[in-house]
Amino acid sequence: MTVALLLLLAQATASASPEPDRPAITIQQTETPGARLFYLNLPWAPYTFDDMERPGNGYYNRRAWPFARLETARPLALECTSLPPGNYALLFHPNTPDKQGMSLEVRKIASGEFLEPGNVMTPVPDGETIWRGPVRFDTAAPTASALRIEMLPAERGFQLKVQYGDRWTTREFRY
C-alpha cells in the first residue's frame, strides 16, 4: 500500500501546473552625489496599498512600512529639517481610523542594513524620528510590477521619486 500511495503522490505532483516564476525580492540601489538609497523590489499588491490609503484599523493600517534605507555622506535638508550625514530608514505610515492620511517618516538608525531580501514584512528598525510629514500619492502610468525608486537631480539636491504599482510620490532633499 505504501508504494501505491507514493506512486499516486508522485503522479499528482507531476501533473500539477507549476507556479508562475516570481522575481526574487532583492535589495536594489540608486544613488546621487553624496547619497545612496537601498530598497527592496517589493511586488505590486494593489489590495495592500488600497488598505494603506483608506482610513481604517485593518492589518495593513496598524504598522509602519519601512521601504528604504538612505545613506548620506553630506548634510541634507528635508523641508526645514536638517539631516546630518548618516544612516536613515524611510517609512510609510498608513492612513488611520481618524483619517489623518498617510505619512512619510525619516528615522535615524544605527549603521548597517535592516532590509531583508525575500521579506515583504521587514521589521521596523529602532531609531529616532528626525522628520515626519504627510505624503500624497498620484496615479502613475504605466503600472510598475514592483517598487521602483529614483534619485533625480534637482537644482540644489535631488528629488526622491517613489513608484509603487500605479501610484507615485516625490520628495525633495536639498544640500
Keywords:
single chain, 175 residues, mainly beta, 6-stranded antiparallel β-sheet, 2 helices, disordered N terminus
Distance from first to last alpha carbon:
73 Å
Give the total of beta strands. Answer: 12
Question: Uncertain segments of ≥5 residues (pLDDT<50)?
Answer: 1-19
Rg (CA only): 20 Å
Please give the oligomerization state of what you see: single chain
Q: What would the principal axes of the Cα set say about the shape? A: globular
What count of domains describes the coordinates? Answer: 1
Tell me the structural class: mainly beta
Number of helices: 2
Strand content: 35-45%
Q: State the helical fraction.
A: 10-25%
Major β-sheet strand ordering: 1-2-3-6-7-8
Biggest sheet statistics: 6 strands, antiparallel
Compressed to H and E, one letter per element, the order equals: HEEHEEEEEEEEEE
**What number is the mean pLDDT?**
87
Can I get a quick summary?
The protein is mainly beta and 175 residues long.
Structure description:
The strands form two sheets. The chain has a six-stranded antiparallel beta sheet with strand order 1-2-3-6-7-8, with no helix packed on it. Strands 4, 5, 9, 10, 11 and 12 form a six-stranded antiparallel beta sheet that branches. Helices cover 13% and strands 41% of the residues. Mean pLDDT is 87; it is low at 1-19. It has helices spanning 2-15, 46-53; strands at 27-32, 35-40, 65-72, 76-78, 81-83, 86-93, 103-108, 128-134, 138-139, 148-154, 157-164, 167-174. With 175 residues, it is mostly beta strands. The chain contains two helices and twelve strands; from the N terminus they run H-E-E-H-E-E-E-E-E-E-E-E-E-E. A hairpin with a 2-residue loop joins strand 11 (157-164) and strand 12 (167-174).
